[in-house]
Design brief:
globular, 181 residues, 3-stranded antiparallel beta sheet, single chain, Arc Repressor Mutant, subunit A, ADP-ribosylation fold, 20% strand
Length: 181
């Protein structure tokens, strides 16, 4: 079991649990849960055979904690980042005064004009720390960290949610709540 192989499996899990379950004919319920037994069987049918123990290892060691099991480990889902419509049953929460969003400098003009939009995802993703935001920004080019006046947004009636893996989520961040670090 290599780290490289685990990463490949994790990316595949992301594809089928967050974006395209139909890739392996997987059924997710309305809350994004897949039956573990069905997932493993359908992965094997598509040339990605792994054991339950390896799946557990990937879930536990994923650096972004992207996946979660239900209490008895019979179901699995992605914590956030879905481009398919699911209900994560998240309750609105009061965010910290400032949250962070990492992006590439090439996106800055558009973001400062339009705000942060969710695109094909269910929510805009925000970080509670600069380090995570920087890592996200580096994936897209020369990184820049934007600060989000999340406390003010919350005061103004904009809802925030906190995913199981501690990513802050909201529908949209208008440009007036954004500033560069």
């Amino acid at each position: 079991m290599s780290i490289k192989e685990d990463k490949k499996i994790s990316k595949f899990l992301s594809l089928v649990l967050r974006h395209r379950p139909e890739t392996i004919d997987l059924q997710l319920d309305d809350q994004g849960w897949a039956k573990v037994e069905e997932l493993l069987k359908k992965m094997a049918n598509h040339g990605k055979e792994i054991s339950f123990e390896r799946l557990q290892h990937i879930v536990i060691t994923n650096d972004k904690q992207r996946y979660i099991f239900n209490e008895n480990h019979t179901k699995i889902r992605a914590n956030q980042g879905h481009s398919i419509n699911i209900n994560l049953n998240l309750e609105a929460q009061q965010p910290p005064e400032i949250l962070y969003h990492g992006t590439a400098t090439k996106n800055l003009d558009s973001i400062m004009e339009q705000g942060l939009v969710k695109g094909n995802r269910q929510y805009v993703h925000l970080s509670a720390d600069k380090t995570t935001a920087l890592k996200v920004g580096q994936r897209h080019g020369k990184p820049i960290i934007l600060l989000v006046r999340s406390g003010k947004m919350h005061q103004d009636g904009i809802a925030f949610f906190l995913s199981e893996n501690k990513v802050w989520l909201t529908d949209y961040v208008p440009p007036e709540y954004l500033f560069e670090q």
